[in-house]
Amino acid sequence: MSPPSLASTYGAWLISLFLETLLYGVGIFQTFLYFQWWPTDSWSIKGPVVIVTFLETVQITFFFISTYYRFVQRFGEPPGDLIWSDSLQLLANYLTAFVVQMHFASVIYRLAKKRAGIRRLSSLVTYPVIVLAFVQISAGIAQTILSYQLRSFSKLEQTKVTTTLQTAASLACDVVITMLLFRCLTIYKDGTERTLKMLNSVMTNAVIRGMLTAASSAATMILFLLYPDTFWFFLSFAPNSKLYMNSMLASLNMRQHNCDLASPNGEDGIELSQLSTGRSVVTSPAVFAGSRDEEETLPGTTTESAYPSTDCTATATA
């Protein structure tokens, strides 16, 4: 039995296009909900959402252009050449992963900065994420340039080094993000049942997010190394950036839901005890570290500066 070839695995190309189109639709819907539910978020959070939505729109647009070229313009003779739209969608994919990874690095920094025990290490704990994210995007840019120079999918085996480095760095970055989020959120546990319920939900979502993106990167690396002259790796590679997009948006959109877990009876705020101030306070989920403009204070809420230790929405953001 002859090994699979590019032409014999174009089905994987179409399946991956179908999967990422579904995930893109979910992502656009989540983007719409985000701007409806959180219009007063600061631009430090809105910015990554806008950038990721733009990059994912570019990525899927060029994927459709490449698909049209192969199956319509070259109908009957699917070509194996790699055109300009293929290179651009590769770059958009890598950039999306980078933006999302840097977003979660900022989340980890804010969570660490608000706890007295690790406040001094808040910058230090984000360094592994930042370094791995830059390694990932650097290898991704190199991969984009090399693939465009080769101009053929059948020659992509020559880019094994850069492809392996990019996927391995992305995988490691997602694992580190998950571990740091889990650790930072664990420190927020204060023993109260309502707070534990919220934190358990946030921690579960953080682990699932990390597992999905890490598994996608691992599958891409394995399939590419095992079947370099096929499109099997597209099954995990193409939807990968959409998983990053949806994971970031889901973490942002679920903030109020997670806070509601801690306030099941609809109270305006939740009681958090054993703060670094040594007293019990009630803080509102409406105002939170970096989730809204610093100057804004809603009626009936407390400003961030009054309670610097913790808040419902801060932990719920992860």
Helix segment tally: 9
- The domain tally reads 1
Rg from Cα:
22 Å
The major beta sheet can be summarized as: 2 strands, antiparallel
Enter the CATH topology name.
Rhopdopsin 7-helix transmembrane proteins
Strands, total number: 2
Class computed from helices, strands and strand pairing: mainly alpha
Poorly predicted regions are: 268-310
User: Percent helix among the residues?
Assistant: 55-70%
CATH second-level architecture = Up-down Bundle
CATH class: Mainly Alpha
Order of helices and strands: HHHHHHHHEEH
| Widest sheet: strand ordering | 1-2
Mean pLDDT over all positions: 77
Question: Strand share of the residues?
Answer: under 5%
Ends apart, CA distance between termini: 49 Å
Choose one word for the global shape.
elongated
InterPro entries: DUF6534
Protein name: DUF6534 domain-containing protein
Biased composition (Polar residues): 299-318
Region (Disordered): 288-318
Walk me through what this model shows.
The protein has 318 residues and is mainly α. A two-stranded antiparallel ribbon has the order 1-2. A hairpin with an 8-residue loop joins strand 1 and strand 2. The longest helix has 34 residues. The chain starts with 9 loop residues before the first helix and ends with a helix. About 14% of the residues have low confidence.
Primary descriptors:
mainly alpha, 9 helices, two-stranded antiparallel ribbon, 318 residues, elongated
Give the SSE layout.
Elements: H1 10-37, H2 43-73, H3 84-113, H4 127-150, H5 160-187, H6 193-226, H7 234-253, H8 255-262, E1 270-272, E2 281-283, H9 312-316
Antiparallel strand pairs: 1-2
